[in-house]
Design brief:
By secondary structure, this protein is mainly α. The protein is 84% helix and 0% strand. The N and C termini lie far apart (66 Å).
Length: 199
Amino acid sequence: MNEFITAGGIFMWPLLACSVLIIAFSIERSWFLQKRLICPDGLSNQIKTLMDNDMIDKRHAEEISNLSSLGFLLINCIKYKNLPRENLESKIEEKATEVQYSLERNLTMLGTTATISPLIGLLGTVVGMITAFTGLTETSGANPDLLAAGISQALITTAFGLLIAVPGLVLHKYFEHKIKYLLISLQTEVSDFIDIINK
């Protein structure tokens, strides 16, 4: 592995940094975007029960709001429940924007890192090719073995950049799809909850 990195030259280090960032962002998003942390099953019914028994005080409201994104939205539904439905939905849309921003955190960085990786690899290849051909002009006569070795080393960065970019872009699309699914789930839960409290 060390020989592989050394052969790729200086551009292998930013590529290694990109690979570490992609892994870190992916682990962080995988943990944070668990359904139980965003839209836990049965939370709406639990809150309805607490409301019916008049058991939601300020402390309970803060705990529920911090528990999950759904809890945050439902507590805001209760907070603005006396508003006309149109105004209530407008308030919840504002809060939903905050939730969406939170869900999409680091997603742009993941996509950007995956996108620039093959470009860094290509830059490394171009620089390597220039070096290989410059070396030929400085020697008397062309050495095919030397040229082949130089080109081989130059192409390592492109290969490594693509090796990083492909899974990075796949993970980016996966998380985008998961966020859309979670937002739809939240919208459904909140809409049903508003139907009950805003009759």
